[in-house]
Amino acid sequence: MGVAAGVALGVARHRAGGPKPAEVVAVVVDKGEVTLDVATTGTVRPATTRQLSFAVNGTIESVAVRAGTKVAAGQELAAVDSAEAASEANEAQSGLDAAQERLAAAENQAAAVTAAATACATAGRPVAPASPAACVTRGYPGTGSDPILDARKAVNRAARAVDQARAALEGTVITAPIAGTVVSVAGGVGDNVTAGKTVVTLADTYDMQVATDFPEADAGSLAAGQTATITLADHDDALTGKVVQVDPVGTPDGTLVRYGAVIAFADPPRDLLVGQSAQVAVRVGAARDVLRVPSTAVHDISGGSGTVLVRAGDRSTARTVTVGLRGDRYTAVTAGLTSGEQVVRSW
Known about the structure:
Blueprint lengths: L5 E4 L14 E5 L1 E17 L2 E5 L4 E6 L6 E2 L4 E5 L2 H41 L8 H4 L11 H24 L2 E3 L4 E6 L6 E2 L4 E6 L4 E8 H4 L7 E6 L6 E8 L4 E2 L4 E9 L11 E18 L4 E4 L2 E8 L2 E12 L3 E6 L6 E3 L3
Antiparallel strand pairs: 1-2, 2-22, 3-12, 3-17, 4-11, 5-7, 5-10, 6-9, 7-8, 9-11, 12-16, 13-14, 13-17, 14-16, 15-16, 17-21, 18-19, 19-20, 19-22, 20-21
């Protein structure tokens, strides 16, 4: 017999004109699950929001999206005039080509010097002072310089300049780094924009979460990984979620200290709206297959003990019991009662 099945006992016969006695309702102590949830409200928001900007100053040439547009990863969103950036990229590439040619010339000269010196040494003849090949095998007399090293440094500098110029050219176009929904667009065709200033805000609406906060009394029992139930006004069925973040520092709201938490949807619906409200209940405690009674049946809880009224026939007797998890509907009893006994449901 389950706890939910109440048995009305001790109902005295009502006498005409006299006060009607109170009904005593007893329930059977049984085994089952005891759960504890903490509840609050929250707001649906994207898991990720990207602030997108151009890498160069310029004039906007095109804007392909507006607020609410759903985009795919890699899709072009906006562009500025790229003529100047393209010219600088070409100049940087020409500089790199010239530096590479100078390096090749320096390496060829070094090879020629080495070959001449080797030939002289093999022939056993003195090296002619007037011959460049006879002076040194690397560098120039008395200068300590190294033409090959200098040329390689120049190539490295030119290569970095090419990378920067190409990045600037690529930065004349904003593309979507992720699939999602455009939240806002700041600027239109013909507007001048500054490098680094946000033009498009993109939200990952395919991975939504609920931002919530809990009062201090409830926040202490929260932990990442706990399951949650999310209820939305426009969905008939409750949705399953999981706690993914609990703020370590609270924020006073004038009367209470509240701690933020983030709840992720296990399987987010595709029609979620950014900013819509949600009811959230997080399961912070659970005990299965334990002896339980309605929480209203246990009074005077202190130090892990409480008092119940055990019902036998038409008599109720107070008894001290040891309690475990005190849940939303039921309280676990670890000692003092046996399965099948009856207790007064509320008193």
